[in-house]
Structure prediction request, 229 residues.
Amino acid sequence: MTALPPSAWYPVALAADIDPGTANGTRLFDREIVVWRDSASVPHVWEDRCPHRGMRLSLGFVRGDHLACLYHGWQYDADGQCRLIPAHPQMSPPDTIRVPPLASVERLGMLWAHTGVESSGGPPLEERPVRPVRSIAVDCPPEAALSRLGYFSGPTGDDGGSGDWTVAAPAPSLVVVGSGDHAILIGIQPLSTRQCVLHAVIAGPGGDGLRISHWLEEFRLAVEAEAVQ
Ligand code: FES
Prediction:
């Protein structure tokens, strides 16, 4: 099993699951992160830790293009720079009070973040219209999920699935099951070395989301059983 690269683009949410003006906490290789959208729908991914006293920013509130901490209300702008300390509203916060942002981008119906220190442009994947299916947590190493996706037969049934789909991995954390007008794209988010989340979208006009959702549950059962052997 090939280890996932520590410095790369990884999906952190289905784009449709993060509404404008909301924040959600998750993990990437055990790193606590907050995924949020400002009121203009621009996505951001940051360390999930307020520089003041360490409160999780994912518990806070979006105020326009700022994210406000729940504890003392400090507000951070889209670059992570602190812009307001409510207890000292006249004060201009120093540049050192800043939340480290991760490079992030929206692509293929998912929000992606880069785990390295510098990156831009997003994962090298061609954009195409997709529809969200679901995200599903899996209690197995991300590499095990990736490996099994590589030879899984795909869903069968009257949605067009033949049970004999082609599988490709155009990026370390993305598997495409099927091809052409009918494909399921599955992004793998490593929560840790032992757990992951699969984010699934459908590309093309075909595909039954409910059937694919059931297929993902079957896949989870199979890969989790394999992981404990
Ligand atoms: S801990 Fe966030 S503002 Fe105090």
About this structure: Residues 50, 52-53, 55, 69, 71-72, 74 surround FE2/S2 (inorganic) cluster (CB under 6 Å).
